[in-house]
Specification:
Layout: H1 8-13, H2 22-63, H3 69-72, H4 74-115, H5 117-142, E1 148-152, E2 157-160, H6 162-168, E3 184-186, H7 189-202, E4 204-213, E5 219-231, E6 234-244, H8 246-261, E7 265-269, E8 275-278, H9 280-285, H10 291-295, H11 306-319, E9 321-330, E10 336-347, E11 353-362, H12 364-386, E12 390-395, E13 400-403, H13 407-411, H14 432-443, E14 450-457, E15 463-474, E16 480-489, H15 491-537, H16 541-568, E17 576-578, H17 580-590, H18 592-597, E18 600-604, E19 613-615, H19 617-638, E20 642-650, E21 657-664, H20 694-704, E22 708-713, E23 719-726, H21 728-737
Parallel strand pairs: 18-20
Antiparallel strand pairs: 1-2, 1-6, 3-4, 4-5, 5-6, 7-8, 7-11, 9-10, 10-11, 12-13, 12-16, 14-15, 15-16, 17-19, 20-21, 21-23, 22-23
Helix pairs in contact: 2-4, 2-5, 4-5, 15-16, 17-19, 19-20
């Protein structure tokens, strides 16, 4: 039963509490201390309110001085209103404080009557302790980032922290006291009920739960720790701490999918070689039927050379990883294959090696392709090197990207001298426009192939005639990316073709000249005989001079006819062993007087040890005498004096030939007439100075001796005539080897 209510005056005037009432006094003291703090707070609030009202009134007064009287009294009204409100609030606060004191005192008296004064004080103390403990517990679980909840064995949610409320997306009042299956559809209550007996037996469980939320249907995974709440030896409920591992499980699923779908082999082994795991690609690569069968093997058994595994272990210990190391492994059936091994060493927190993990890439097919490609490239290289032509490739920028090795023999250059260089710097200036036109037509797709002959400068400075045959290079889409060309040195071929043409022309001309000379020879003989007879019998000096002139011109005509006959049908030479130095000396001696008279010096250096040639010395003297005369006349055309250089020598090693050259320092031979200079009746001399048959006859004589005669302009000016003749021994051996007729 409760004590009758008492008014505040009675509680205030009552006698002090007995000595056995410390806890009740403590409660009342706490209430009194709280009231004092509230009173002090209210005093400060009222003081601030009054100051605010005064400041507001002063501000209004400054702005309302010029207004009417009743308007100026407005700030005073505002201050009065604020003061009235403050008094009203203070009275209400005092009433509330008195009521709170009466309530506390009444509760204390009721407890004292019901359970006695000591028990009431203990209950009051426990009430405050429990209240503070519950608040601390709520604050603790709300501070967790992971969901924490307590549920009954029937599935009712008894308690939950802030994180659970956020996951369910509801208010706190909509979660606590409701059944768990209102918020999750998986796991089902039937499955939870079936597992409950085993949980009650162990009173704890931990593992990953698959949870599907209502109503969104989102699937999540939680790593849960469940403990039984035990009362009086029986399980009364379940406490749960869950960690969201959805992202980790998704990553694991993606990793497992990647692990199983990779085409490269993936492995995990211990440092001792025990295989911890392997993906399906590695199982197939090694020829095993299952992962378990492979894992029964030691990694060392898979190496063709087990020492390679030991070497890799040492490198991993030292460096921590391997990058694309080529190794040879053995399949289950004993066959071998090559692969690239990339591995990493994994250590524990103490720094001990616990695992090797890495990938294996089978490169057997790649190595076979590389070998086949190397063979094809080698075949192509040998094929290109065997071509007699120089093979070049140009890109769209007109630069060389490939030059075959044949360029060393043709132009004396290294392929590296031309790679990256734009075409044309070694071409003759007169031929560059034609070369440009060919390249542009090929690269622009105007022509699919074309041929051009142009002159290119050899490394030694000589000009070589090149025949270029070009075609475009296209990519997979058909776009022209460059051009390929073959360059053939046709200098000798053109010279031989010209010689053939020259020979045919000379043969036809010889037949004609022979007939004409034969027809002219008889009248000239008669003219010479009659003019000689008349000259002998004529006594008139004037007639004798005229007859002498006629006889000289007839003799000159007869000599020309004889030269024509010699050109048309040169007499068979009386061949014998001849020293080329002696032939040159006799030719210079025969023309010594004319050279000295015309201030033309001769620079003749005979070589010792030059082998003999097989030929007619008189005909050879005629050849060199003709060359010396031409040189003298060329010098006299441009200067009063000059020098003729006569040299001789032996051909290169293995070349059974000797050569002799006659060089002058005259005007030289223009390039446009080099091809015509050996034609019959072609001459650059003034009328009456030559017949144009000297060089033609000289060429016929040299060819009759199995040699050649060539001309070119000298670097310092003038012309150089080069005569080559076979060595006598080689000619005799060739004649001896010929079968008898």
């Amino acid at each position: 039963m409760s004590a009758p209510p008492s008014n505040p005056q009675n509680r205030a005037g009552s006698s002090p509490p007995a000595p056995g009432e410390p806890q009740a006094l403590n409660s009342r003291a706490l209430v009194a201390a709280q009231e004092r703090r509230e009173q002090e707070l209210w005093r400060w609030c009222l003081l601030l309110l009054v100051l605010l009202a005064v400041a507001l009134g002063a501000e209004f007064a400054q702005h309302l001085e010029t207004l009417k009287l009743f308007t100026a009294a407005l700030p005073l009204g505002v201050i009065a209103l604020i003061a009235w409100l403050a008094v009203l609030v203070w009275r209400r606060r005092s009433s509330v404080a008195r009521a709170r004191r009466e309530l506390v005192e009444a509760q204390s008296q009721q407890l004292a009557v019901a359970v006695g004064l000591p028990a009431a004080r203990e209950f009051e103390r426990l009430y405050y302790v429990i209240q503070r403990s519950q608040q601390g517990y709520r604050d603790l679980i709300d501070s967790f980032e992971d969901p924490v909840l307590a549920i009954s064995l029937q599935g009712d949610i008894l308690a939950a922290n802030r994180r659970v409320i956020e996951v369910f997306g509801r208010e706190f009042s909509q979660v606590v006291g409701h059944r768990l299956d209102e918020f999750v559809s998986e796991p089902t209550m039937a499955a939870a009920t079936a597992a409950l007996p085993r949980f009650e037996e162990r009173r704890q469980w931990f593992g990953v739960l698959r949870v599907r939320l209502r109503p969104s249907g989102d699937l999540r995974f939680y790593d849960c720790v469940l403990h039984a709440v035990v009362r009086d030896g029986r399980t009364a409920g379940i406490s749960c701490l869950a960690r969201d591992v959805t992202e980790e499980r998704q990553n694991e699923a993606r990793f497992a999918e990647l692990f199983n779908s990779l085409q490269e082999g993936v492995y995990f082994t211990t440092p001792e070689g025990e295989i911890l795991d392997a993906n399906p690609a590695l199982v197939r690569m090694l020829g095993f039927t299952s992962r378990e069968e492979l894992m029964r093997k030691n990694a060392k058994e898979l190496y063709l050379d087990p020492g390679v595994r030991d070497a890799e272990s040492t490198m991993l210990e030292q460096q921590g990883k391997l990058a694309a190391r080529e190794i040879v492994l053995r399949r289950k059936n004993g066959s071998t294959f090559t692969c690239l091994d990339s591995a990493t060493l994994v250590r524990d927190s103490a720094g001990r090696a616990v695992r090797y993990q890495g990938t294996l890439v089978d490169i057997s097919s790649r190595l076979e392709m590389e070998r086949s490609l190397r063979e094809q490239q080698e075949f192509a290289r040998r094929l290109i090197d065997s071509f007699p032509d120089v093979i070049v490739v140009l890109d769209r920028e007109r630069k060389f990207t490939f030059v075959s090795n044949r360029v060393r023999e043709v132009l004396g250059l290294e392929p590296s001298d031309l790679i990256g260089v734009r075409y044309g710097p070694r071409a003759h200036p007169e031929d560059i426009p034609h070369l440009d036109a060919l390249v542009e037509d090929i690269l622009n797709g105007v022509k699919t192939n074309d041929t051009l002959e142009y002159r290119s400068r050899h490394k030694d400075g000589a000009w070589r005639m090149m025949r270029a045959t070009a075609a475009p290079l296209a990519d997979a889409n058909g776009a022209v990316t460059g051009m390929v060309a073959s360059l053939r040195d046709v200098t000798e071929l053109n010279r031989l073709e010209q010689q053939v043409m020259q020979s045919e022309k000379l043969a036809a001309m010889g037949q004609m000249i022979a007939g004409v000379a034969h027809e002219l020879n008889n009248p000239l003989t008669a003219i010479l005989a009659v003019s000689d007879m008349l000259r002998e019998h004529s006594e008139d000096p004037g007639h004798r001079r005229q007859l002498e002139l006629m006889h000289q011109q007839a003799r000159r005509a007869a000599d020309i006819v004889q030269d024509l006959l010699s050109f048309a049908r040169p007499p068979a030479p009386r061949k014998g062993r001849v020293q080329i130095a002696e032939v040159l000396r006799r030719a210079l001696h025969l023309h010594e007087y004319s050279l000295r008279r015309n201030n033309v010096a001769v620079d003749f250096l005979p070589e010792k040890g030059i082998p003999d040639v097989l030929g007619d010395s008189n005909q050879l003297i005629q050849v060199f005498l003709n060359l010396v005369v031409n040189a003298e006349q060329a010098i006299r055309e441009v200067r009063e004096s000059g020098t003729i250089r006569v040299r001789m020598g032996r051909g290169a090693a293995g070349d059974a030939q000797v050569w002799a050259s006659v060089q002058d320092d005259g005007p030289g031979v223009p390039a446009e007439i080099l091809e015509k200079i050996f034609d019959p009746f072609f001459t650059t001399k003034r009328p009456g100075r030559g017949t144009g048959l000297g060089l033609s006859i000289s060429m016929a004589i040299v060819r009759e001796h199995g040699g050649e005669i060539r001309v070119q302009s000298a670097p310092g000016g003038g012309a150089v005539f080069l005569v080559t003749l076979p060595v006598a021994d080689s000619v005799e051996e060739a004649d001896a080897a010929m079968p008898p007729a």
